[in-house]
């Protein structure tokens, strides 16, 4: 139990660092002078000290939405799969609850976009609703497939099953599901082929457009939610799809877990540097690949005769 | 005559849950209605007839109440007899009686000598009937056309918006559920369910849910949007029923029970949040006098209670945790995920498609309700009506708040509701397996969800964040924010049409939208204009292809019949002659010399006869 609390705390602490790390890796690869990976902490501190400005057109939704964007995501951090065997994990919530809570957060994010009556908020909300509608089926198919391979619908138990006795005969469907989930990781966190987190250009904005009118501590809450969301996806990815190291002693397991998170950050940074942002109407093609891989993963699993 | 068995009582409970808040709402809404006596008579008869349908136990009584229910709701659509209302009422009248014919046929087959046969007698007859698939087809078409499942859903987006709002809430929230009740009641009478039946119901459900939500997204009439969402939710209910039927056929009775419970629980949930949505939309309509979402905006500032109730219902219908809508959709997902224990590989591979459809539906529903809530209640007002809107009167608010209470209590008392549903349906008792303790609901394949803990955790976490946030004593200011240098006004914000733009463009092959636009440009500038209009209308594909073409076909046939009925006497005589010749010839051929050669010979001779005698020479 104490280990569970400590690892959860670790995830909270490390979350902004990971976002900063991606940024500095990217800058390094682009031959810029990289910022410190600890920059997001300073940014958060700066934002908390600033005055909050509410746009004249906003309603009470703008005042409550930042909390409701953050709190489901904070809750999800407590539901993550364990990073080493024998650790406590919450077994009475399954992956559907996790996807549902993430959608709840996105729901309020879209509302905050529409609240300030600026056309940019509308652009962002409209695009985000389009993308997240297509992410949903891919996510559920992939999770279904992984839960079949890991023989438990609860991703915590599933991750431990995969780590302790990996079903080699299902590696094909495992890899397909892994690719699908990586695409979802990129899509849900607004990374480059889908959305560019760094521009404020109306043609390319999705996530940034929704929060254009949010300032000060509210912005800090939403930024925090963003980096927590990334670490949630990254840690689900590493515990489910890079399943080794869980049966070591806990200090080694945690080190390996953090190294794996760095690896994901590196992978995302490499994808970002090497790819261009897709046009909005090309995004469904990428998400279509995720959906098809989810399907294929299930089909290969069934055809190879799992769970008979 | 009447029978109060547990299934009937369950649905009486559902009707009362839907009707009591509605009574308050309707009495507040009454000042808005011109033909008060007409409205009140039909309104109360409508509620009583729905209760009559669910408690009746004899064929004639059932049909009587069913017909009264259809007729009163038809009259209620005509409360305000505008041109549009008359047209949609006529469509509704036709469709509901189209379904009635099939229901009547079903009863004629199963109660040949006694119109007062009780449903138990029908069960025996059904056991001896040789073609149960025929019976299945009859009740599927009959009851599901009333419930609004694809492809018999086309009347729904026309009929529901035209009725006064309390009636829309009743029709969408309760009347569709009465049709689901009737379907469940009679499907349990039929013996030996075939595997195909379940697959058909599952397919209808998956299609309805997708088509419903896609057309809801394209709507900008708020009540038509909600009506399209009813199609979606009926689809979700049917997915549950279909899964239950498939598992029953495969003798997986506990899994089947889970599917049926999920379906009926979603029936309750849809009743609650759809009624609340219709009531809140009705309040908005009551204040702004328009159903067009493009004239709303910023109503949360003037109508906060209505807005927040709408928000609760919108979160619930989008299946976001921890609401009741999420719980029932979770159950339906879990019942489909149990499909991995099926042996038949084809069936196993088919289930992911239904899962895909349901998941996509969920995603699109979120988009749709962000649009419905965001465009209606957030931003700036888009018309002067929206600017002068005020909170509605107390009675209407009480109705809405009560319904909000129903939505929330369906989530809070989940175990009790599930227990109630489980004992009411003729299925295996799985309550103790689902709820080993009160707080956590387990599905039968290892999944689990704890709604109360989820809600509690969300509240605690939010409270903690708010506490820390408040303790920082942050400075606040209300001022202009930077909108990239543009002036923020009501014309510059996103519209409902614009919001649905990306999705509409992605599904263009389905929507085939008609775009009306015009622009008055200034002195030859391409980008500067004084006046512009952009409107998109989507006519449902089913209506365009299936219904309009049926209409054309019927037109053609009646045209031919009209021509034939205006023959001269000689032609009639020759027609009779040809009929006679055909019968005799066919008798000869089929009774004595049945071979392809003689059939071909008969066909040739008859064609020559028809050509020479009836059609004659072309002039």
List the helices and strands and how they pair.
The complex is a heterodimer of chains A (308) and B (619).
Chain A: H1 2-29, H2 39-49, E1 52-55, H3 60-78, H4 95-115, H5 119-149, H6 155-164, H7 171-188, H8 207-210, H9 216-241, H10 250-274, H11 283-303
Helix pairs in contact in A: 1-9, 1-10, 2-9, 3-4, 3-9, 4-5, 5-7, 5-11, 6-9, 7-9, 7-11, 9-10
Chain B: H1 6-29, H2 36-55, H3 59-77, H4 83-110, H5 119-128, H6 132-147, H7 156-162, H8 165-187, H9 195-218, H10 222-249, H11 253-288, H12 299-302, H13 304-317, H14 324-337, H15 345-377, H16 384-387, H17 394-412, H18 414-424, H19 431-434, E1 441-442, E2 448-449, H20 451-471, E3 476-479, H21 496-499, H22 501-506, H23 508-511, E4 514-521, E5 529-537, H24 541-565, H25 569-591, H26 596-615
Antiparallel strand pairs in B: 1-2, 4-5
Q: Which blocks of ≥5 consecutive residues of chain B have pLDDT under 50? A: none
**Overall pLDDT confidence of chain A:** 90
Radius of gyration of chain A: 19 Å
Number of domains of chain B: 3
The average pLDDT score of chain B comes to 89
User: How is the quaternary structure best described?
Assistant: heterodimer
Q: In sequence order, what are the helices and strands of chain A, one letter per element?
A: HHEHHHHHHHHH
Total number of beta strands of chain B: 5
Please tell me about this protein's structure:
- The complex is a heterodimer of chains A (308) and B (619).
- By secondary structure, chain A is mainly alpha-helical.
- Chain A has one domain (2-303).
- Helix content of chain A is 69%, strand content 1%.
- In chain A, helix 5 runs parallel beside helix 11 (283-303).
- The longest helix of chain A is centred in the middle third of the chain and has 31 residues, at 119-149.
- Chain B is mostly helical and 619 residues long.
- Helix content of chain B is 71%, strand content 4%.
- In chain B, helix 9 packs antiparallel against helix 10, helix 13 runs antiparallel to helix 15 and helix 25 (569-591) runs antiparallel to helix 26.
- Chains A and B meet through strand 1, helix 3, helix 4, helix 5 and helix 9 of A and helix 14, helix 15, strand 2, helix 20 and strand 3 of B.
């Amino acid at each position: 139990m104490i280990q569970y609390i400590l690892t959860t705390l670790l995830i909270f602490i490390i979350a902004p660092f990971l976002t900063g790390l991606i940024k500095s890796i990217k800058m390094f690869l682009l031959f810029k002078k990289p910022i410190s990976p600890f920059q997001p902490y300073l940014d958060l501190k700066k934002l908390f000290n600033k005055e909050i400005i509410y746009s004249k057109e906003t309603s009470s939704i703008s005042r409550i939405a930042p909390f409701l964007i953050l709190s489901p995501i904070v809750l999800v951090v407590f539901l993550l799969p364990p990073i080493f065997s024998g650790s406590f994990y919450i077994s009475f919530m399954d992956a559907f609850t996790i996807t549902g809570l993430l959608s709840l957060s996105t729901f309020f994010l879209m509302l905050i976009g529409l609240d300030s009556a600026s056309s940019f908020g509308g652009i962002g909300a409209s695009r985000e609703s389009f993308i997240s509608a297509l992410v949903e089926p891919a996510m559920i198919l992939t999770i279904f497939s992984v839960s079949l391979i890991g023989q438990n619908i609860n991703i915590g138990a599933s991750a431990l099953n995969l780590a302790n006795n990996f079903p080699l005969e299902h590696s094909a469907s495992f890899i397909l599901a892994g690719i699908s989930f990586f695409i979802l990781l990129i899509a849900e966190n607004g990374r480059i082929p889908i959305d560019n987190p760094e521009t404020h250009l109306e043609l390319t904005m999705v996530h940034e457009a929704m929060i254009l009118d949010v300032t000060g501590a509210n912005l800090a809450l939403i930024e925090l939610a963003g980096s927590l969301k990334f670490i949630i996806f990254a840690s689900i990815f590493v515990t489910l799809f890079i399943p080794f190291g869980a049966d070591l002693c806990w200090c080694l397991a945690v080190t390996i877990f953090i190294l794996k998170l760095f690896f994901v950050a590196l992978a995302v940074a490499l994808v970002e540097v090497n790819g261009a942002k897709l046009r909005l109407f090309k995004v469904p093609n990428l998400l279509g690949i995720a959906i098809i891989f989810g399907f294929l993963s299930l089909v290969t699993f069934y055809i190879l005769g799992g769970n008979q | 005559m009447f029978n109060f068995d547990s299934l009937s009582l369950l649905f009486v409970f559902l009707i009362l849950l839907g009707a009591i808040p509605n009574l308050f709402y309707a009495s507040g809404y009454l000042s808005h209605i011109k033909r008060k006596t007409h409205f009140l008579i039909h309104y109360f008869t409508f509620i009583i007839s729905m209760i009559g349908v669910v408690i009746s136990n004899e064929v004639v009584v059932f049909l009587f109440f069913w017909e009264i229910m259809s007729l009163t709701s038809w009259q209620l659509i005509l409360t305000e007899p505008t041109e549009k209302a008359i047209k949609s009422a006529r469509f509704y009248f036709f469709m509901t009686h189209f379904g009635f014919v099939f229901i009547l046929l079903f009863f004629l087959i199963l109660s040949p000598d006694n119109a007062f046969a009780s449903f138990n007698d029908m069960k025996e007859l059904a056991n001896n009937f040789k073609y149960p698939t025929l019976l299945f087809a009859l009740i599927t078409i009959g009851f599901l056309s009333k419930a609004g499942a694809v492809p018999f859903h086309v009347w729904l987006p026309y009929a529901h918006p035209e009725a006064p709002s309390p009636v829309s809430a009743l029709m969408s929230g309760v009347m569709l559920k009465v049709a689901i009740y009737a379907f469940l009641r009679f499907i349990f009478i039929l013996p030996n369910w075939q595997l195909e039946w379940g697959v058909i119901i599952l397919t209808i459900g998956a299609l309805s849910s997708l088509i419903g939500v896609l057309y809801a997204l394209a709507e900008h009439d708020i009540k038509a949007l909600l009506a399209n969402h009813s199609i979606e939710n009926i689809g979700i209910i049917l997915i549950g029923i279909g899964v239950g039927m498939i598992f029953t056929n495969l003798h997986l009775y506990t899994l089947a029970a889970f599917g049926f419970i999920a379906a009926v629980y979603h029936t309750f949930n849809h009743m609650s949040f759809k009624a609340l949505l219709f009531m809140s939309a009705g309040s908005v309509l009551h204040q702004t006098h328009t159903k067009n979402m493009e004239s709303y905006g910023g109503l949360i500032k003037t109508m906060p209670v209505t807005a927040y109730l709408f928000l609760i219902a919108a979160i619930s219908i989008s299946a976001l945790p921890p609401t009741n809508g999420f719980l029932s959709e979770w159950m339906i997902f879990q019942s489909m995920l149990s499909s991995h224990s099926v042996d038949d590989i084809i069936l196993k591979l088919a289930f992911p498609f239904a899962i895909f459809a349901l998941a996509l539906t969920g995603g699109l529903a979120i988009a749709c309700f962000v649009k419905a809530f965001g465009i209606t209640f957030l931003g700036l007002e888009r018309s002067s009506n929206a600017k002068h809107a005020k909170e509605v009167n107390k009675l209407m608010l009480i109705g809405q708040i009560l319904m909000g209470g129903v939505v929330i209590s369906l989530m809070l008392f989940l175990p009790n509701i599930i227990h109630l549903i489980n004992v009411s349906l003729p299925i295996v008792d799985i309550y103790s397996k689902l709820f080993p303790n009160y707080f956590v609901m387990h599905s039968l394949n290892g999944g689990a969800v704890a709604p109360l803990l989820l809600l509690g955790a969300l509240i605690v976490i939010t409270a903690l964040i708010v506490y820390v946030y408040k303790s920082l004593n942050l400075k606040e200011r209300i001022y202009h924010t930077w909108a990239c240098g543009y002036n923020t006004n009501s014309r510059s914000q996103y519209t409902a049409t614009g919001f649905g733009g990306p999705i509409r463009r992605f599904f263009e092959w389905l929507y085939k939208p008609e775009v009306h636009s015009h622009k008055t440009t200034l002195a030859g500038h391409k980008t500067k204009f004084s006046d512009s209009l952009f409107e998109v209308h989507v006519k449902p594909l089913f209506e365009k292809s299936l219904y309009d073409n049926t209409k054309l076909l019927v037109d053609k046939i009646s045209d031919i019949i009209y021509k034939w009925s205006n023959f001269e006497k000689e032609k009639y005589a020759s027609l009779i002659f040809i009929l006679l010749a055909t019968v005799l010839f066919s008798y000869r051929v089929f009774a004595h010399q049945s071979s392809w050669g003689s059939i071909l010979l008969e066909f040739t001779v008859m064609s020559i006869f028809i050509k020479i005698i009836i059609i004659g020479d072309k002039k």
